[in-house]
Amino acid sequence: MTADEKEEEKIKKMAEFRAVLEKRIKELETELEGLRAMFEFVNDTLLRKGFKKAETVMPPLGLPAAAPSVVESEETVPLNTADGEFLANLYIGKDSMRVIMAEDKNFNVNTPPFMPFLVERVLTKMQERDRESVGTGELTPDEIISYNIMREGDIIREITIRNVGPERARELKSSIRWTLEKMYEKMAQAK
Predict the structure, then answer these.
(1) Which of 64, 97, 142, 178 has the fewest C-beta atoms lying within 10 Å of its C-beta?
(2) Cis peptide before 113 (omega within 30 of 0)
(3) 9 phi and psi, to 5 degrees?
């Protein structure tokens, strides 16, 4: 084997190894998104149940109690139909959003346009654009938009979206309102 052939073989192996690394990075990013969503769900559930960290309930011995931490303020926006029917509350934080569905509405995950529009055309496309931005160095992997849909069976109870900037907050707010309104119209027609 000549020196050129050896060099060519090295480059080929490096390219194969690069592809393996790239695949593994994507797998880890997906796993990390899932872990963040699960962590957020557990954290939210604990907070709703009144759970507090031990340090906030009782400071460690010998140390003065720390001042309570400032909780991120959320803007609450009720989402209503054009004729005033309450659909959900939208909670907008610094870089996150939560949509809590009205208790008397059973929004089914399979009712259009939820999956084809909101999930696939809005949220998934935002993630794809963010991943491209990570590739160009504009964003870090932990700045990619992520979302979690909490449901009971097929009924959507809450949607949590992380890494939402101000521009995206406006776009998401109108997309979510439109989606829920269209879903509600389909539900009303089915009755």
Answers:
(1) 64
(2) yes
(3) -65, -40
